[in-house]
Amino acid sequence: MALEPGTVVAGRFALESLAGEGGMSVVYRATDRLNGDVVALKVLRPELAAVIGAERFLAEIKTTANLQHPHILALFDSGQTGDGRSPGFVFYVMPYVEGETLRDRLTREKQLPVDQAVRIAREVADALEYAHRHAVVHRDIKPENILLHDGHALVADFGIALAAAHSEGGSRMTETGMSLGTP
To answer: pTM for the full model?
Structure first.
């Protein structure tokens, strides 16, 4: 799914450029017209939304949006476009992080100095432990989902997290045997 620069999502987020793509989503650099902040707007690929359902995805986003930790990328907003007559898409909004992924750094440097590797591992483990205490399991932890910003790690992409707690209906938000994230 490709949206054009200049497109305004939810009447608020003006897309500037493509920031990245993954197997499950497309990320755009955007401006929040409400406050002028530069944000990242992540659009869930329609085929994935069809499999897991937009409502489930938005429920998981709501769960993970409550995770407030210095090494977890914050979520600002989420929603679904479309008016029932035209197909829409599911999106969420997070801070736009200047920096690189751990994968980019490992590709460039091949090996990190031990002190930096230990610090990054400690920060990621701290973030995951915090999420686990709040009944959220990431399920797609990999170097591409660890952002490096100002010398610190930020765990990103909790959008497909398994909320270990049950949804209001009493069932898990993801089904046994359903594969999400990177195989």
So the answer is: 0.78
